[in-house]
Amino acid sequence: MARIISIAxxxxxxxxxxxxxxxxxxxxxxxxxxxxxxxDPQGNATTGIGIYSKKLNTSYDLLTKAKTLSEVILNxxxxxxSLIPASIDLVGAEIELVQxxxxxxxxxxxxxxxxxxxxxxxxxxxxxxxxLSLNALVAASGVLVPLQCEYYxxxxxxxxxxxxxxxxxxYNNSLSLFGIVLxxxxxxxxxxxSVENDVRKHLGDKVFKTVIPRNIKISxxxxxxxxxxxxxxxxxxxxxYMELAKEFLAKEKKDGR
Length: 257
Fold this sequence. Notes:
14% strand; alpha/beta
């Protein structure tokens, strides 16, 4: 069965989509069968993989049950990596599904018949706790949280951990915090170091040893429609995401998966 991981943070601008795209790419590079689901109305994971067409079946069609999973999956130029794209239409799903029974389980039920097709399903969730994020967390067994190294990020993390706890108690008892990855890290900045120390002190081994640095190549890559691992495989950002994938797989093995 596929391991479903939701990349989530209720604060925007923390490297969530960048982490989703590059972790998915790195896992595909080591011959894992990976499905990346863009569940953010901004569609940045979609364009970050180089998909720009507006005439596509998307995660909106899946969520509203207009299309099945097989009808919305796209092959990408990255071997082993498939994509369910997103569009701005997802904004409307929040309103359209208000009266739908079992609306929080639509994604979980849509994925169930296909989970033998993939080793990993990575969901890029939106930076808010609405019906989209709820679907992602109900479908997932683990949550990976990118955490920007700044003061206010810690407040957002506390809120997110509370949301995970409530969803586990109400909708998905298999949901757990898979890990936290520190992003936009600058060793020359005392705040980055202070945030890292605080997070590691309170959450211990839930925090990945690998940190994602501030890196111009990471910032440039999406404008070329490429993961940084393809845009510039030799840059420090690519190296960091390869190390993150290695640590991710080691953690999976340790957990017996």
